[in-house]
């Protein structure tokens, strides 16, 4: 089949577009999905460059699950497609279903996992014509949206919904979202509004109006100091996707009893924490990778109800994956960049 092999950790030359990749074999609980579209994510770049590794480039911990990557690997965590074959334990009635794949996998090749793997990281994903996953992770979706639009949802929106679920964002609260123009950030803006809470979105000036249109109550330029702009003890929850040198200010703007939630560190992973701020303000910290139960079901419900909308900045054919990632790395877009495969 046609697809892209990641042949090792490194630069863009490690992406090998091929036509001779074996079609995945099914185990008893699996379904085979003919991929229509798959979106590009930060995790694709982070995995390729071994960013997740806390050691050196020997990369024994360079995946989401903290284990070594087996190469070659088909990446692609965001998958929309149609089921074309099923394992012996799966009903034939599933053939023909249009599905989105839950990115956080608790079963792979018939084996239950003690810690989840992630599609396109610890196992092969959607940057190919076909992908095999356990039937339990392929969710039927009934929508008039195109494959490329639906492929913008799984990873970013489930990550955002997971952050809101863990931190228990409530109607009437005020939430600060950093990195608000990215896939997860723009998803969080929509999902926070769907909960009846208000959003302050941190973004670049050129993207401010787009975030206001999505539902942000207010925007801050990412070069502004949030304490000066908002004042101390001013927000209930911080949804942080950037980290970096300004990180201590995110705790300063939290009210006593506030919640800090993180699922990214694109501005820098090493930050300075004054423990007195943490314990004197009775703050709660949440790290988010593994999805809470019902999170992906909630996303499917939101899609089918029209509560959230896809934000697709650009589409490319699969064979232009290098161009797609180069554009992604410029960080000038809002939402997602999507690769079309069998649309």
Structural description of this entry:
The chain has 343 residues and is an alpha/beta fold. It has helices at residues 42-48, 147-150, 154-167, 183-194, 208-214, 226-230, 247-252, 275-280, 295-305, 321-330, and strands at residues 3-6, 15-18, 30-39, 78-86, 98-101, 104-108, 111-118, 130-134, 138-140, 174-177, 198-203, 218-221, 235-240, 254-262, 284-287, 312-317, 336-340. The chain folds into two domains: 3-153 and 310-340, Medium-chain alcohol dehydrogenases, catalytic domain (Quinone Oxidoreductase, Chain A, domain 1); 155-287, 3-Layer(aba) Sandwich (Rossmann fold), CATH 3.40.50.720. Helix 3 (154-167) packs across helix 4 (183-194) and helix 3 crosses helix 9. The protein is globular and about 55 Å long. The chain starts with a strand and ends with a strand.
């Amino acid at each position: 089949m046609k697809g892209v092999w990641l042949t090792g950790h490194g630069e863009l030359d490690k992406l090998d577009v091929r036509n001779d990749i074996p079609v995945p074999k099914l185990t008893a609980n699996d379904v085979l999905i003919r991929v229509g579209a798959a979106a590009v994510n930060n995790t694709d770049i982070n995995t390729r460059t071994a960013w997740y590794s806390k050691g050196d480039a020997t990369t024994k911990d360079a995946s989401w699950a903290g284990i070594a990557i087996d190469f070659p690997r088909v990446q692609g965590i965001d998958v929309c497609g149609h089921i074309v074959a099923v394992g012996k334990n799966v009903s034939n009635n599933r053939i023909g279903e249009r599905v989105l794949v839950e990115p956080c996998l608790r079963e792979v090749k018939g084996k239950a996992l003690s810690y989840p793997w992630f599609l396109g990281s610890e196992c092969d994903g959607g940057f190919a014509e076909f992908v095999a996953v356990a039937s339990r992770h392929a969710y039927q979706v009934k929508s008039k949206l195109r494959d490329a639009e639906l492929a913008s949802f799984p990873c970013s929106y489930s990550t955002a919904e997971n952050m809101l679920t863990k931190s228990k964002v409530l109607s009437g609260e005020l939430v600060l979202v950093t990195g608000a123009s990215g896939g997860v950030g723009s998803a969080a803006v929509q999902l926070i509004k769907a909960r009846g809470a208000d959003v302050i979105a941190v973004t670049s000036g050129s993207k401010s109006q787009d975030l206001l249109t999505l539902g942000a109550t207010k925007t801050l330029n990412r070069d502004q100091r949030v304490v000066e702009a908002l004042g101390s003890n001013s927000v209930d929850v911080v949804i942080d996707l950037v980290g970096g040198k300004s990180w201590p200010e995110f705790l300063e703007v939290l009210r006593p009893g506030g919640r800090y939630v993180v699922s990214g560190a694109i501005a820098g992973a090493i930050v300075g924490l004054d423990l007195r701020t943490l314990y004197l303000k009775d703050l709660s910290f949440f790290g988010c990778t593994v999805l809470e139960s019902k999170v992906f079901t909630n996303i499917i419900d939101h899609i089918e109800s029209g509560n959230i909308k896809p934000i697709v900045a650009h589409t490319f054919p699969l064979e232009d994956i290098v161009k797609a990632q180069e554009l992604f790395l410029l960080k000038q877009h809002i939402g997602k960049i999507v690769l079309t495969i069998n649309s």
